Amino acid sequence: MANKEYHRKNIVARIYDINEGLTHIEQVDFIRIKSDKYNLLIMEDYMPTLGELNGDLTIQAQGQVTSWENIRGFYIHKDNLFRLMIREDRSQEEMA
Questions:
Q1: Which residues pair with 40 in a beta bridge?
Q2: Which residues contact 37 (CB under 8 A, 6 or more apart)?
Q3: Structure confidence at residue 20 (pLDDT)
Q4: Which of 77, 90, 76, 80 is CA-nearest to residue 17?
Q5: Could you tell me which of 62, 51, 69, 58 has the C-alpha nearest to residue 8?
Q6: Any idea of the CA torsion for 86, 87, 88, 93, to the nearest 10 degrees?
Q7: 70: Cβ–Cβ under 8 A, 6 or more apart, which residues?
Q8: Tell me: the pLDDT tens digits for 48-74?
Q9: Total-model pTM
Q10: 2 by DSSP, 3-state: which?
Q11: How far are the Cα atoms of 21, 36, 66 from residue 88, in angstroms, in the given order?
Q12: Cα(65)–Cα(62) distance, rounded to whole angstroms?
């Protein structure tokens, strides 16, 4: 096993938003979640995770940082695929 080469498996992120549609980000270095109850840093080969997000999301991919603030939604991370579905009520609050 000592001679086995390591092959990097980059994270893919998919953000689903009713107004913005699908945002697809490849070669993600890390995902930072700052929710009202916890902080989480998801990196390559991180354990499967499921949860509710009530706060901020930051994704760094290829040196570029993409951020969403004050969002509410649900996420799942499994097999280096991160998916977030942003709740519709966020968009309605911004319109008011």
A1: 33
A2: 54
A3: 87
A4: 90
A5: 62
A6: -100
A7: 55, 56, 90
A8: 999 999 999 999 999 999 999 999 999
A9: 0.82
A10: coil
A11: 12, 19, 20
A12: 8
Structure tokens at 89: 């009520």
pLDDT for the residue numbered 12: 96
Residue 10 identity: N
Structure token digits, residue 10: 């980059």
What SS3 class is residue 20?
coil
Instruction: Retrieve residue 7's tokens.
Output: 């092959």
pLDDT in tens, the chain (96 residues): 566 775 667 899 999 998 889 999 999 999 999 999 999 999 999 999 999 999 999 999 999 999 999 999 999 999 999 999 998 774 444 544
In whole angstroms, what is the distance from residue 11 CA to residue 83 CA? 11
DSSP 18: T
